Amino acid sequence: GTIERYAFAFTNNLESIEIPASLQKLGTFAFYKSGIQSLTFEEKSSLTEIPQSAFAGTNITAVEIPDSVVRIGSLAFAKCYALEQVTLGRGVREIDFSPFSFCEKIRYNK
Q1: Distance CA 5, CA 84 (A)
Q2: In 3D, which of 52, 109, 103 has the Cα closest to residue 82?
Q3: How far apart are CA 3 and CA 79, in angstroms?
């Protein structure tokens, strides 16, 4: 499946989302400045890319990038001021320009 670009952008009543394993494509700015506080990925994710600004400006506090993700796009999580913990999956091979810019509370885990 696909979530189109800007699909849930500026949707303030979204608080928690789980990306289903069947999702193959996430559009740029898909959840931009939405009210998300909790973001999880279903086990055995087939998503290979988190595109540009997909979750930028959200209120998430932690994210565990699934092993299926190979590329994290530019500014993917930019301005997520509450983001404290990021765990990168084993599949991540490409990280574009500053995906975590302005995330001043962040701690990185292997």
Answers
A1: 26
A2: 103
A3: 21
